[in-house]
Design brief:
binds ligand PTJ; six-stranded parallel sheet; alpha/beta; 54% helix
Length: 249
């Protein structure tokens, strides 16, 4: 692992890269995951690498949705397992969600390594090794799921996806919470709630919102009713456009 000096102006970003490269070397992350991270970095740069007020509102709506769910599930892929396994476990514990590994580039060895990473981070039960269900209409390996996990979930958290699952889960009557730095992606535009922020920031923020909303039914309702996905995404595109404008001057 390359030692990154704390004084480096891009320290936080470089540390995330190192985590992914390490995850790749350990067999959690696929090479395609490194490319996906680069795409995320580009959008994050346009956001000024800051959490926007729009992302905070989406995190609050996501937390409210999780608190109203009967069977919430957090889906984890290779990138998420390498970047923030502890944050996944903390959110799952805060809102009573199950955790399931769902991979696009699926192999048994990768699934078991990702489960181990989550268990090392404190997860007690992780679904996904022996999928016994299918998401109708999804031909990719990510269509495999556990009947007791995503199969019976009413709300599914889907961080860092490539666009084919949010619609298929919605067709099953499930609500979805996407975490995706690209506000233009199909996943961002077809999930119930979309959080446009870096995943290592988004998960802890959703956990904080779960903790502060818990038991407060009026605030939970307000967070859900006050959130409009498309307005939120449009507003985030505005932030990016203004940042680009500033760079030009
Ligand atoms: O582990 P697997 O086999 O399931 O494969 C996972 C990847 C990520 C390779 C797969 O889902 C994929 O190819 O995803 P995409 O199509 O590149 O989409 C990932 C989305 O996540 C893109 O819109 C990126 O902008 C976004 N993204 C990448 N890194 C982050 C991110 N969003 C938030 N935080 C990040 N760190």
């Amino acid at each position: 692992m390359t030692e990154i000096p704390k004084s480096h102006p891009r320290y936080a970003s470089l540390v995330l890269r190192e985590r992914l490269v390490e995850g790749f070397r350990e067999g959690l992350v696929v090479p395609q995951g490194l490319i996906a991270h680069g795409r995320g970095e580009m959008f994050y740069y346009l956001l000024g690498e800051k959490t926007t007020k729009e992302a905070r509102a989406a995190c609050k709506a996501a937390a409210a949705l999780l608190l109203t769910a009967k069977h919430p599930v957090i889906s984890v892929n290779g990138n998420v397992a390498a970047l923030c396994p502890e944050s996944v476990v903390e959110l799952a514990e805060a809102c009573g969600a199950k955790i399931e590994v769902g991979l696009f580039h699926r192999s048994d060895i990768r699934v078991s390594k990702i489960i181990k990473a989550l268990e090392d981070a404190g997860a007690k039960v992780v679904f996904g090794f022996l999928p016994d269900g299918r998401i109708p209409g999804l031909e990719s390996m990510r269509g495999l799921c556990s009947k007791d996990g995503i199969g019976s979930a009413d709300v599914v958290v889907i961080p860092l996806e490539d666009g084919d699952r949010a619609g298929a889960l919605a067709a099953m009557g499930k609500k979805t919470i996407a975490v995706d730095l690209n506000p233009l992606s199909r996943t961002a535009r077809s999930s119930t709630v979309t959080i446009v922020d870096e995943v290592t920031k988004a998960f802890p923020e959703v956990t904080r919102c779960v903790e502060s909303l818990e038991g407060d039914r009026a605030s939970i309702r307000r967070a859900i009713d006050g959130y409009r996905r498309d307005d939120n995404l449009r507003s985030i595109l505005g932030v990016m456009a203004r940042n680009m404008d500033r760079l030009e001057k």
